[in-house]
Amino acid sequence: xxxxxxxxxxxxxxxxYLPSCQSTNDEASVLIxxxxxxxxxxxxxxxxxxxxxQRGNQWEAKAGENLTFSLILKxxxxxxxxxxxxxxxxxxGIYDALQPLVGPSLRIKWPNDIYVGxxxxxxxxxxxxxxxxxxxxxxxxIGLNVNQIDFGYSTATSLQALAPLPNTYDLPGLLSRxxxxxEQRYLQLLAGQRDTLKINYLQIxxxxxQEHRFESEGQSFRGxxxxxxxxxxxxxxxxxxxxxxxxxxxxxxIEGRS
Length: 258
Ligand code: BTN
Known about the structure:
14 strands, alpha+beta, binds biotin, 258 residues
């Protein structure tokens, strides 16, 4: 069960807890279709049986050991072409809550993975419903590895693996803190503080301003991330030229040569 009392205006003030479900993003979408939910409503489950990730991947998390939840927002102030600003605000909201626990090695991997070193601590799946040219609804799905230790593969990590506690991390307490930091960053976006958000995002961007290997359209190349453009495309300097990549057009070579 989850009972939280976040110090927020709306994020997490209404919580829908499901002991088990296929995907909290799907549950949130059903609420949007059926009941016009309040902005800030959070759907959370202990056991997500068919969690969805980016690029059609699955999101797997052991029951009762992690946070898997979806936040419903109504960012009608954002144009469809500005979706990336929500990625920035949400990534930073998660960063703000986790940084005091993890320390300075915490990073956001473009566009919105939560990384420590070369390991993934959390992921975000934002699904928007458009109304005309603007975003009517956003389902912000967040998966964070918290108390799970054993993943069966080396590319994932968790809070308990990185910064072990004698017992376990308090999941409702962490959720409550996340509601607060997510709301702060969302309100910053609402207030038009995009310059600050972008500066903060670049400050903690994984592999920012370092030369590394990337892959695009089957071609491997070395380049240096130098920023993001107003559409959220990744700007990589390659052989003295700047190339821009949209989501899914480029991947990081993490396992191989860097
Ligand atoms: C990714 O990194 O691929 C994104 C993972 C997002 C997982 C979360 S868990 C809660 C919410 N419900 C889902 O089905 N997916 C998101």
